[in-house]
Write a structure and sequence with these properties.
It catalyses: [protein]-peptidylproline (omega=180) = [protein]-peptidylproline (omega=0). With about 450 residues, the protein is α+β, with helices and mostly antiparallel strands. Helix content is about 55%, strand content about 20%. A 4-stranded antiparallel beta sheet has the order 4-3-6-5. Strands 8-7-10-9 form a 4-stranded antiparallel beta sheet. The longest helix is centred in the C-terminal third of the chain and has 32 residues, at about 385-420.
Length: about 450
């Protein structure tokens, strides 16, 4: 399978893999190693499960199954590529966020009709002990792989100022950043033939704008089709991953099928018109003092220090001098605690809330964020036209999304070629099979 298919494979079959009674047991007493990948191994039971998932996916799409040996080789290659990514996860020491993990598992639980993680665990473990733990571990791996991809692949994407300038001059750039769009939005979800139904809906949308009729026509017991007329919207009001796709099509055209966690989305562009709306946002000129807990400074000591500094400020001591002397934020401490002009959305939530609610010229009470204890002072505010900055940021995002898939493919090939891989079963080794064929 192509790399693009690999990226969506595990998401598409995750629920089926968890709750389908046709899948094999996760571990077998007669398990054997079929491949070694760096410091990890792939077991025969892992391969059997991957083969079952591929077959389930192809059958759900009503596609003809290729020869068994081909499926086995493809399944093993997917497992190898997945394992090379997990080796990178270990290297970068990336861990899943527990809250995000619970939310991801709960989404799978909801799809199976379970109202809580506890009920879902009981349901899965009743099929086979340990199934819930295996599923949770697998979702955790998916989350860490996705997080690592974002970090690594994004760092490989290079977009120059000249690239941005050139893009903004193109019709696509002007359409994406300066226009409003009138869009129809359709989402297809369910457990049966979702992609097949989505393709039919996409074809129907080419000549039909009656969302209600389309939804009624294609909704079945196993598939739900929901649609809405979004009216005229600024592209900035549409989720960025959708706005980037709308910006590249012409009125009357539909986007490609957009597969995300909650189903497959399709957008149809009806009209596009110019927008004179400016991106005017409030900005705050801020300075702060930060005390971070360290191995030397305990959390309690950090709180005592910030309280002492606050009392000295209230007594009239100079903010800049105290920031320069005590703040553990080296970048701002050198400038008397100054952070310059700060826009909304840049700082952590606790800091932003305090910044917005502190009157100009007054000092906030000490407050805590993930970085430690802060005191801030807002010295001025202004309304700033950020239209140009917004346009450049949007252009970079669009250009980045265009490069992401190609850069991801390149990175996956690199880590695959650099990994130590030993296939124990010669029947599964595609290289050896190619040599024997020749």
């Amino acid at each position: 399978m192509k790399t693009k298919q690999l990226r969506t494979f595990f998401k598409a079959t995750l629920l089926a893999a968890a709750i389908s009674s046709s899948l094999p047991v996760f571990a077998q007493s007669t398990d054997e190693v079929v491949a070694v990948v760096d410091n990890s191994v792939i077991l025969r039971s892992d391969l059997a499960q991957s083969i079952a998932e591929i077959k389930h996916q192809l059958e759900s799409q009503k596609k003809q199954l290729p020869p068994e040996q081909y499926i086995e080789q493809q399944a093993l290659e997917q497992l190898i590529i997945r394992q090379t990514q997990l080796e990178q996860v270990k290297r970068y020491n990336i861990r899943p966020d527990e809250k995000a993990l619970n939310e991801a598992v709960m989404k799978v639980a909801a799809q199976s009709g379970s109202s809580s993680l506890e009920a879902f665990q009981q349901k899965l473990d009743a099929m086979a002990p340990g199934t819930y733990a295996s599923l949770r571990s697998r979702i955790a791996e998916d989350l860490t792989i996705n997080r690592m991809r974002q970090q690594v692949v994004t760092s490989r994407i290079k977009i120059s100022d000249q690239d941005v300038e050139n893009f903004l001059k193109t019709p696509q750039g002007q359409a994406a950043l300066g226009n409003q769009v009138h869009v129809l939005h359709v989402r297809i979800s369910g457990n049966n033939n979702v992609e097949s139904v989505a393709k039919q809906v996409q074809a129907e949308l080419k000549d039909n704008n009656d969302i209600a009729a389309i939804s009624k026509k294609f909704t079945t017991a196993g598939t739900k089709v929901e649609g809405s007329d979004m009216g005229f919207r600024n592209l900035s009001d549409i989720p960025s991953e959708l706005a980037a796709r709308v910006s590249t099509i012409e009125p009357g055209q539909t986007t490609e099928l957009i597969s995300v966690r909650d189903g497959i989305h399709i957008l149809k562009l009806l009209e596009r018109k110019g927008s004179e709306q400016k991106a005017i946002i409030p900005q705050y000129k801020v300075r702060h003092i930060l005390i971070q807990p360290t191995e030397v400074v305990s959390p309690d000591n950090a709180k005592q220090m910030i309280d002492s500094i606050y009392n000295r400020l209230k007594a009239g001591q100079n903010f800049a001098e105290l920031a320069s002397t005590f703040s553990t934020d080296p970048g701002s401490a050198r400038d008397g605690g100054s952070l310059g002009w700060v826009s909304p959305g840049v700082m952590v939530p606790e800091f932003e809330e305090k910044m917005k609610n502190t009157p100009v010229g007054q000092i906030s009470e000490p407050f805590q964020s993930q970085f430690g204890w802060h005191i801030l002072e807002v010295t001025d505010t202004r309304q700033q036209d950020m239209t140009s900055e917004y346009q450049q940021r949007m252009a970079r995002q669009i250009l980045g999304e265009r490069q992401y898939d190609a850069e991801l493919d390149s990175w996956l090939r690199e880590i695959r070629s650099n990994a130590f891989v030993e296939i124990k079963d010669s029947a599964l080794d595609r290289k050896n099979n190619k040599k024997s064929d020749s």
